Amino acid sequence: MKLDHNATLMRIFVTESARYQRRDLATAIVEALATAGIAGAIVFKGIEGFGAGGFISSSRSADGWVDLPILIEVVDEDDKVRAFLPALEAMAEDALVTLERVQTVLFRSTDTAAR
Amino acid sequence: MAKFLEGQLLRIFVNECDTWHGGPLYGAIVEMLKREGVAGASVFRGVEGFGVNREIHTARVWSFSAKLPVLIEVVDEPGKIEALVSELEGMISEGAITLEKVQYCRFQRARSTA
Asked: Is pLDDT of B111 > 70?
């Protein structure tokens, strides 16, 4: 077990309707993270929320258009996470990004390169 | 380059079946947060969990009364977040809140007309 003390958890809050080059922004971010060689990412969909617009969107709401929150979580070495920030800034028209120090243990299937 | 500020992340753990004045508690909390002028809030529903009474609630297809866990997340300046705690204490009869330090930054730019 190898504990990495220099890891960072990045959390990216966007919304469902956000687009990048006419594609879903969250999907585009996940693809960009993969291309950048980030260790992994996980996406959560919210059921309710509000942001800078101030309008509460809820899956409980009966009337028409809702724009639910999407959260992307990423953990990797601090340098790698921070190196991704300019790319993220270029993609996201409106996003909240948080960074926290975390300790991680990565579980990997036995080195595929060695097989 | 994005400038990150020292902020606080508030996470509120309640149950989707909890109520407040006849409506869902989590919805009432979101409205309270908006009223208090925090920058934003996001609500997520868990697929399984348990609380203090140790009864496990899970989202199985045959279960219609799942009582699933709900998580509300808020990020803002530490002063603004700490001011919410007493109000939450009055609303939540069973649940938990956590506070942690985070660095945060809002990426925002004008929508291009192209």
From this structure: no
State whether B107 and A46 contact (CB < 8 Å): no
Enumerate the β-bridge partners of residue B70: B14, B45
Shortest distance, CA A110 to any CA of chain B (angstroms): 30
CATH number for region B11-104: 3.30.70.120
Strands A94-105 and B41-45: unpaired
ipTM of the complex: 0.86
The pTM (predicted TM-score) of the whole model is 0.89
How is chain B split into domains, by residue range?
A: 11-104
Pairwise CB contact (< 8 Å): B4 & A49 = no
* Domain encompassing residue A85: 3-105
Selected residue with higher pLDDT from A110 and A22: A22
